[in-house]
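User: I'm writing a tutorial on reading structure tokens. Could you give me a worked example: one chain, its sequence, then its tokens, then a sentence or two explaining what the tokens reveal?
Assistant: Sure. Here is the example chain.
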Amino acid sequence: MKIGDIVYYKGEKCEIVYLYESGYCEIKQPYRLQIQLVSRSELEKID
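And here are its predicted structure tokens:
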């Protein structure tokens, strides 16, 4: 995964905004201003 990738988080499409070496990343859902910090293991990559 890399910055800008679109992934699923809890069934919703989100964009990766920032990746941390600790295994966490910041994601943003479309049309929302809120950014969430989540574990990469909770994300499902869209092919």
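What the tokens reveal: Residues 6-45 form one domain. The chain has one domain: 6-45.
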